[in-house]
Design brief:
Layout (H helix, E strand, L loop, with lengths): L4 H28 L10 H27 L7 H5 L8 H22 L6 H8 L2 H14 L7 H23 L5 H7 L3 H7 L3
Helix pairs in contact: 1-2, 1-6, 1-7, 2-4, 4-6, 6-7
């Protein structure tokens, strides 16, 4: 076996995981901003968001296992899960560890979403945005590919798209169900029930 095999696996799986995290966020934002109208679409298109999130977790797991298996750069399990435990590149690695723990919260609560109050789940799901930023910072500062022009360009492009979609979502937010219901009440009825 090539002595650099695990190094190549850790690099490739890390890059794929970073792109999958970004695509998960992009797809989720496309659906929630209604840029893509879900009505009438096949159900699997809405499930794609969940599948991309699951694939992100799988590739992150491969990335972590390959880092432990690599003989060139040694990582202990503690250094993979405790921020700033890895002395060599403490900051860049800590960004990845922080993103990992937030992603565990997002993915874990998504698995039990139906057992949670909707507002709690949604609030925790918003942690996806910091995950995307932390993954991008980790990707741009850690590892041998952080200086690669193509890698940096793709990372900047995906972060630009995410930023645009987040701004679009904030500016063109759908009104809540209660606000939509109140807007359908005739003006005379609003005066009778005290709705302003």
């Amino acid at each position: 076996m090539n002595p650099q095999f695990w190094w190549f696996v850790s690099r490739a799986s890390g890059m794929v995981a970073a792109v999958l995290v970004a695509l998960t966020l992009v797809w989720g934002l496309l659906l929630t901003t209604k840029v893509i109208e879900r009505r009438g679409l096949p159900a699997w298109l809405t499930d794609l968001h969940r599948a991309l999130g699951g694939l992100s977790v799988i590739f992150i797991a491969v990335h972590l296992l390959a880092l432990v298996a690599d003989n060139y750069t040694y990582f202990s399990w503690k250094e993979l899960f405790v921020p700033f435990a890895y002395a060599k590149d403490a900051g860049p690695v800590a960004w990845g560890i922080g993103a990992f723990w937030l992603l565990i919260i997002v993915e874990g609560t998504s698995l039990i979403q139906r057992r949670m109050p909707r507002k709690v789940w949604r609030g925790l799901h918003y942690l996806s945005y910091p995950v995307g930023v932390m993954v991008a910072v980790h990707a741009m500062t850690a590892g041998t590919d952080s200086g690669n022009v193509w890698f940096r360009g793709i990372t900047f492009g995906l972060m630009g798209l995410l930023t645009f979609l987040i701004i679009y979502r904030v500016l063109f937010r759908r009104p809540s169900k209660s606000a939509r219901a109140a807007s359908r009440i005739p003006a005379a009825a609003k005066q009778e029930v005290g709705v302003r």
